[in-house]
């Protein structure tokens, strides 16, 4: 499913109207009906207050008001704005509502108290004040309305049309206030503002409804961002052949760990093992090997020269050995600590082949010289916002406010695959495309979950034989496993169990899709 900004949504609309010939009023009618259906299904017999602005978002709200009234709902509809400023389609939707003998009240200083009383008596409040057409911060009257809506949050369900009013659909920024919705019904495809914070935190449950714009329009318009979904991921999950052996599923090499971070290599190995890797070798500073062995008996151990509990400066020379097995994907970084230096990393990069994933402390080293991976492909970087901020010499806030642009620009410029981790992780490719995973949970907001993800990425790259597919599977399944795990009690080392459950759920989905 495509993920768009406000301009791209307008272009999709225009294409549907001008090139396909769907009249714009039909799109509005379909959009309004779609929200009406969602409300009818979820809140039967509710008393509704519908709030409409004079833009097309308000037009959608007028349409849904008419349909819900026709289905027997008690609806009070308010216009916040003026009839004169309505768009052509909104004016049509408004007239149809009025001519259906529905009284639309106008919000004025005089009617304000009545408006507040009606809000207090509502079971469901529909927010059609402003959608993707918002400019800057909400003006005073709209902001007051939003605050009144939010005051009823405990007593009424709040449903936003397209996007909660006050959120910038391009970047999720809230300049002043925004509606805090329980349910948001959007059309055709989601907008970035639904997945970028703080806006994303105001959407409640997000429903995407088809309004008749064919999916290929996104491709036609060159839209490069997509939201990952179960149906797509279930087709990527590699099948296990009955007639297979450990060599069939790839060999992962993890170069990680130090005295202070004994668990990190173990968690990375666990991520790889629990998601189907055939073989995992752990290269560790010699002195910590005995501690890690007890944590992951499935791994093969490769002790490297040690200096005070970290990799010694020349420990990379282990890679010179001529009798090494073939490693299909290499992970460097989890728990390295601060003792290794950039020359050590350079040697490791130069002396390994195949897909290379740099995580954690390896990313901090890479920040000292971004040319290190220039001649090495493919390279995968998995920073959290703090790590990319350090690499790019920005603040975490700057990163979080520009997640999409930073991920895409960095991946293109440095010709790497980048996973910008976070509540909705973004995968960006060297070609400039990007993918957002809607999956995840606060159960993952704990030390070590990123280490597990790195192992999963390597494992899925090997099993799918494709870097992008491996990244998509790993990030998505990691998020699903987090959703299945208890938010409080589940830790990174418990993820293994839930990875299995997530994979089974996806396999079932794939079977369902192929059953007539
Ligand atoms: N394919 C789809 O997805 C379809 C989408 N559709 C719908 O169209 C919507 C987009 O419609 P749109 O372009 O008319 O803009 P919209 O969101 O109503 O905002 C403009 C209005 O907001 C106002 N306003 C602006 N800034 C403001 C501020 N700071 N503070 C206060 N007010 C402010 C502005 O007022 P003005 O400045 O003009 O006085 C104007 O009235 C989209 O979200 C979806 O619901 C469907 O109808 C069809 C298919
Ligand atoms: N609230 C959340 N919702 C979804 N995913 C989350 C959340 N918090 C953390 N995660 C995920 O958990 C992982 C944490 O990685 P990271 O910060 O590198 O942890 P560590 O370095 O301790 O292993 C990332 O994949 C991130 O996307
Ligand atoms: K809205």
Chain-wise SSE layout:
Blueprint: H1 6-20, H2 24-42, E1 47-52, H3 56-70, E2 74-79, H4 88-99, E3 104-106, H5 112-120, E4 124-128, H6 140-151, E5 157-161, E6 183-187, E7 205-209, H7 216-220, E8 225-227, H8 230-236, E9 251-255, H9 263-274, E10 279-285, H10 289-293, E11 300-304, E12 306-307, E13 310-311, E14 329-332, H11 342-350, E15 356-358, H12 360-366, E16 379-381, H13 385-392, H14 396-401, H15 403-414, E17 417-420, E18 426-428, E19 434-436, H16 449-464, H17 467-484, H18 495-513
Parallel strand pairs: 1-2, 1-4, 2-3, 4-5, 5-6, 6-7, 8-19, 9-10, 9-14, 10-11, 14-15, 15-16, 16-17
Antiparallel strand pairs: 12-13, 17-18, 18-19
Helix pairs in contact: 2-3, 2-4, 3-4, 8-18, 9-16, 9-18, 12-13, 16-17, 17-18
The structure holds ligand NPW, adenosine-5'-diphosphate and potassium ion.
Named at the architecture level, the CATH assignment of the largest domain is: 3-Layer(aba) Sandwich
> What is the overall silhouette?
elongated
Mean pLDDT: 96
What is the helical fraction, as a range of percent? 25-40%
Largest sheet: 10 strands, mixed
CATH topology of the largest domain: Rossmann fold
Radius of gyration computed on alpha carbons: 26 Å
Bound molecules: ligand NPW, adenosine-5'-diphosphate, potassium ion
- Text of the CATH class of the largest domain: Alpha Beta
Fourth-level CATH superfamily of the largest domain:
YjeF N-terminal domain
Q: What fraction strand?
A: 15-25%
Number of strands: 19
Helical segment count? 18
Return the structural class.
Answer: alpha/beta
The overall number of domains is 2
First CA to last CA: what distance?
A: 24 Å
**Main sheet strand line-up:** 8-19-18-17-16-15-14-9-10-11
Q: Which regions are unreliable across 5 or more consecutive residues at pLDDT < 50? A: none
Family: Belongs to the NnrE/AIBP family. Belongs to the NnrD/CARKD family.
EC number: 4.2.1.136, 5.1.99.6
Domain YjeF C-terminal: 229-506
InterPro entries: Carbohydrate_kinase_pred_CS, CARKD, Nnr, Ribokinase-like, YjeF_N_dom, YjeF_N_dom_sf
């Amino acid at each position: 499913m495509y993920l768009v900004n406000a301009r791209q949504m307008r272009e999709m609309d225009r294409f549907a109207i001008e090139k396909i010939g769907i009249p714009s009023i039909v799109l509005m009618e379909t959009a309004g009906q779609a929200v009406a259906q969602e409300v009818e299904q979820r809140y039967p017999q509710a008393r509704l207050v519908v709030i409409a602005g004079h833009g097309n978002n308000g037009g959608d709200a007028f349409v849904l008001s008419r349909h819900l009234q026709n289905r027997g709902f008690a609806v009070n509809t308010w216009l916040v704005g003026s009839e004169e400023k309505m768009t052509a389609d909104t004016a049509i939707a408004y007239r149809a509502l009025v001519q259906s003998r529905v009284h639309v009240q106008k919000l004025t200083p005089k009617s304000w108290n009545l408006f507040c009383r009606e809000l207090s008596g509502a079971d469901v409040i529909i927010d059609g004040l402003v959608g993707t057409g918002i400019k800057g911060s909400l003006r005073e009257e709209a902001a007051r309305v939003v605050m009144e809506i939010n005051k009823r949050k405990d007593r009424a369900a709040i449903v936003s049309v397209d996007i909660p009013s006050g959120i910038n659909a391009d970047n999720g920024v809230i300049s002043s206030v925004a509606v805090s919705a329980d349910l948001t019904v959007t059309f055709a495809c989601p907008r970035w503002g639904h997945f970028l914070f703080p806006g994303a935190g105001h959407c409640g449950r997000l429903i995407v409804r088809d309004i008749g714009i064919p999916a290929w329009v996104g491709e036609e318009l060159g839209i490069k961002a997509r939201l990952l979904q179960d149906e797509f991921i279930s087709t990527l999950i590699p099948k296990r052949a009955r007639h297979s052996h450990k060599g069939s599923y790839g060999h992962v090499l993890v170069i990680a760990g130090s005295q202070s971070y004994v668990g990190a290599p173990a968690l990375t190995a666990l991520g790889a093992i629990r998601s189907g890797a055939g073989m995992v070798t752990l290269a560790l500073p010699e002195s910590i090997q005995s501690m890690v062995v007890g944590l992951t008996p499935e791994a093969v151990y490769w002790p490297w020269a040690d200096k005070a509990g970290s990799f010694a400066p020349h420990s990379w020379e282990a890679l010179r050995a001529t009798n090494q097995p073939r490693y299909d994907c290499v992970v460097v970084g989890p728990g390295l600590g601060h003792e290794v230096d950039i020359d050590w990393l350079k040697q490791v990069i130069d002396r390994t082949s195949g897909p290379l994933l740099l995580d954690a402390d390896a990313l901090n080293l890479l920040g000292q010289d971004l040319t290190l991976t220039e001649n090495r492909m493919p390279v995968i970087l998995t920073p959290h916002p703090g790590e990319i901020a350090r690499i790019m010499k920005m603040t975490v806030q700057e990163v979080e406010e520009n997640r999409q642009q930073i991920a895409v620009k960095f991946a293109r410029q440095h010709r790497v695959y980048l996973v910008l981790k976070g509540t909705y992780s973004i995968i960006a490719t060297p070609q400039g495309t990007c993918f957002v995973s809607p999956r995840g949970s606060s159960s993952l907001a704990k030390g070590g979950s990123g280490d597990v993800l790195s192992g999963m990425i390597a494992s899925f790259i090997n099993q799918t034989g494709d870097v992008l597919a491996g990244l998509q599977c790993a990030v998505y399944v990691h998020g699903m496993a987090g959703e299945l795990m208890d938010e409080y009690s589940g830790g990174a080392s418990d993820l293994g169990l839930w990875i299995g459950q997530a994979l089974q759920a996806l396999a079932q989905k794939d079977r369902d899709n192929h059953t007539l």
